[in-house]
Each structure stands twice: as C-alpha cells, then as structure tokens.
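We emphasize that the prediction below concerns an isolated chain of 349 residues; any contacts that depend on oligomerization or on bound cofactors are therefore not represented. The input was used exactly as deposited, without trimming of termini.
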Amino acid sequence: MKISISIFGTFLNRIPSPIYLALAVVIFSAANAVTTRIIELGQAYTIDGRNPISLCNVLFVGNLCALGLMILIFYPDWQLHKLKKVALKDWRLLTITAILSRAIAPALMFTALGQTNVTNVVLIGRLEPIFTLILSVFLLKASVNRLSIVATLISFIGVAVTVFFDISEPARMVMNLDFGVGESLVAIAAFISAITTILSKQQLQSIPVSIFTVYRSLVGTFVFFWMAVILYGFHHFVDVFAPILWQWMLVYGAIIVVLGQLAWLAGLKSASFIQINLASLVTPILAIIFAYLILQETPTESQYLGGILLLLGAILSFIDNLQTSKREQTVKSLNPRQLMDTDVGFRGI
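Result of the prediction step, given as a token string:
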C-alpha cells in the first residue's frame, strides 16, 4: 500500500505545473456560477422563509467540509516533529495569509455576488493578475518585458470598459460612474488575492503543501465564522445543520475548494509569475461561458467588449510566455562563458 501511494505521489510530482494551473482555472472559472446556482436551488428548501443555502452558510460549511477532506488526505504530515521544522516566522506569515485569502477575500467576493451579477464579478476580478504583476515587479524585482506590460494594460482597459462604460446603442459609448458596492468589494478582494498569491509562492518554497493547505483552511474558517458572528450574531448560522446544505457542500467542498485549491497550489509552487498571470487571464473567458451555461446570464455589450480586450491580453500573455520559455531553454543550453556574456541581455528585457 505504501509503495502504491509512493508511486502515485511520484506520478503527481511529474505532472507539469501548467497542467495543474489549467485544472485550477477550469474549477475556479465555474465556482461563482456554481455557487450562485446552488444558492438559487436552496430557495426550494426554505426553513421558516430562510434559505438554508445562504452565502455565509456556503462559505462556512463548504470550508468545513473541505477542511475535513484535507485532514484525511494530509494527516500523516501533521506530526509534531514535522511541524517543528516550520520556522516561527513562517507560521506568523502563514497566519496572515490564511486570514486574508481564506476569510477576508472570500467574504468580500461572496458578498459581492449578492450585490452584482456573476459576469461583473468575474471581469472586475481580473484586476488580480494586474495587481499581481505590479506587486511582483515592485516587491520581488521580477523582470517584465514590453509585451507583458502591453498585455496587462490591455487587460486593465478591458476591466475599465466593463465597469465604467455603457454601450447600449450602436456607435455610442456613455461613461458610467455607477461603481457600486459589489464592484468595489470585488476590486478590494482582487488586491488582497494578489498579495496572497505572491506571499503563497514564497511560503511554498519552505512550507510543505500539506501543512500550508490545512493550516490556511483551518485559520480561514475559524476567522470567517467569528467575523460573521461579530457582524451578524450567532443566529446568522441558525440553519447551518440543514441536511440539504451539507449534501451540497460535501460536493462543493471536495471539488471547488479542495481539488481547485490543491491544483492551484501545486501549479503555483513551480510556476513562473508569467504562467500565473496567463492562467489568471484565461479565467474570465471560461467564467463568462460557465455563467451563460449554468445561469443563462447573457453578457452586456460593455461586458462583451471588456471580455474581448481581456482575451486579447490573454493571447499576448501566452505569446510572451512562449517567448520566455524559449529564452530560458536557450540560456540552459549555453556554456558558462556564453551565459556570462549574455546574462545582461536576458535580464534587461
């Protein structure tokens, strides 16, 4: 049995990071539409007029189910001698990351789903890769070439068109400054997610995925519960034990939370920031498709134009990724003297 597990683990380790990122992108793209659909289905099982599958219940119980599954998967790594290998400063930073990524950001996104449509949430959420790229340049001194900058600018314009322009008539574009609460919450959540993406990539170099994932979910679930209790009171979770809620959340937690998160983290550990940026830019295109297929939510003219610009940005990022990969392969094939002679040229792009 141990040999089989070892072979399976070796097989998983050999899977390229882009495959993991692609799987995570598909799951995360469908997440908002699936969440909204499940909440709508809950209207058929109301308890004293309350929907047991509320946004807070979905986030809390979904995280609990996911946490239980993660503990079953990773409990062998949660031994005292292994936990002691993680430095105290890493535990502190991991706690901050957990609160931001598993409590605050999801709470903002879930609240936004109740304030605006899924397509708006998806497109405005694409500020995350833009923030990630900017922060990686200023905080980590990551090198970025012109094509990557152009792709990011086009993507930013795509988000701006979605939010600030109304194209309701042919050949007419009207400025729309109605930036509501939902849109604002998505933008804040995107910035928080960008910060946690950078922090997570750094932490995964010294903290095993098994410890990282379980601890982050544990702290995030705990903090979110008490945030909701402080804001709304204990009665807010009065329907938390409804059977219909747990039936849906077991599936939701296993696929959307656990599988999606593990695939993302597995890809994040060895992926470049350009690959992460590319994966994030592809997400809105798939998310809009899922919103249409699952919710029959038809994009507006502004959302179509914004989506086209985001797609163009994704294509340019893909081209940039291919060029970067070719340059990296060329560098690896050079001898030390050639590498030293061309080092400035590659870094100065």
